[in-house]
Specification:
With 319 residues, the chain is an all-alpha fold. The chain has 11 helices and no strands. Bound molecules: iron/sulfur cluster.
Length: 319
């Protein structure tokens, strides 16, 4: 047993043991398109490593490039969807830094500071979690801390919030969601309030509408490239999974980019992405890897330069 395994709660340990048992019985998970898909994200694609969601914090990590349940080599800063991480290893302040790691910080036209109603819901939920109430995830806890601290949220976070509330509104129908009902607060209510509660739902809906409207109307949207005429290539689900494992596609297999033609197609279709900022970062990474950043829209190139300057100033501060 490694030291992280010893820190797992009983239910986390049960999950850990079940995953090991499955891997022993059926063979380690791989990503060749058959069997269980682990959704591994290499270090350069892992957007949650800043908050501690990474192999080196996982109880299934065996050191070096070895994972107890994955057949291929992993990186300490990579992650897969089965990560089993003890409480306390996910750092909320890292999430805040990560949220600043995009060009949202330069878009001050929409106020994305949490409201007082959201803060009181998130504070209530954090108090419930301290009492040991069930409900919510690590991401929910990180979100609640951001809200309580009054952190200006990124546009991608607003999109995630709106998506969360839309998917979980059905939880309101369960007994224990409302005060006075048996079992209050239900796990669904705890999770709901971690994300800012009813105030967070209406706020994220209204902010997301404003963001979408600005994106649709802004003049510096994607500039068509000379490769517009290139025929769109179809990849099979198996190919997409393999490309995701290599970092050529996003973790869910979307935006596969192996060459110039794929890059052009991705740039043209990014407006339809469920998570615009995440897709944009992936496309920029692939453009860099392919040495084709000249194909990126001008406003993206500008934001890349601003990002660089931001990090330059952070580093020189300590030199
Ligand atoms: S996060 Fe996934 S890939 Fe990494 S060590 Fe844990 S189980 Fe293995």
């Amino acid at each position: 047993m490694n030291e992280l395994e010893a820190l797992l709660t009983p239910d986390e340990k049960a999950l850990h043991d079940a995953l090991v048992e499955i891997a022993q019985k059926y063979g380690k998970f791989d990503e060749d398109g058959s069997g269980i898909w682990a959704g591994y994200e290499p270090a350069d694609q892992n957007e949650e490593k800043a908050i501690g969601v990474k192999c080196s914090n996982c109880a299934l990590y065996m050191g070096g490039v070895q994972c107890e349940i994955l057949a291929f080599e992993v990186e300490p800063e990579g992650k897969c969807r089965f990560a089993v991480i003890p409480d306390g290893y996910v750092d909320v302040s890292g999430q805040m830094d990560d949220d600043m790691n995009n060009d949202d910080m330069y878009k001050a036209d929409i106020n994305l500071k949490p409201t007082d109603g959201m803060k009181s819901a998130a504070a209530r939920a954090l108090a419930w979690k301290k009492e040991g109430k069930r409900g919510g995830t690590r991401v929910g806890l990180a979100r609640a801390n951001q809200i309580v601290n009054g952190t200006t949220l990124s546009e991608s976070t607003v999109a995630r919030m709106y998506s969360f509330f839309s998917r979980h509104e059905v939880d309101k129908q369960a007994t224990g969601f409302s005060a006075g009902e048996e079992g209050y607060p239900s796990p669904g209510r705890v999770a709901w309030d971690l994300w800012g509660g009813d105030a967070g739902y209406s706020w994220s809906r209204s902010k997301w509408e404003s963001i979408k409207s600005r994106r649709e109307n802004k003049s510096d949207t994607i500039v068509p490239t000379e490769a517009d005429a290139v025929e769109k290539r179809d990849y099979s689900p198996k190919q997409r999974r393999a490309m995701a494992a290599r970092g050529q596609a996003m973790a869910d297999g979307s935006f596969p980019i192996a060459d110039r033609a794929d890059l052009s197609n991705a740039i043209q279709s990014v407006g339809r992405a469920a998570n615009y900022e995440s897709a944009k970062r992936h496309i920029i990474r692939r453009a860099r890897a392919l040495g084709l950043t000249e194909m990126l829209p001008d406003d993206w190139k500008k934001s890349m330069r601003k990002s660089l300057n931001y990090y330059d100033s952070r580093f020189t501060k300590y030199m």
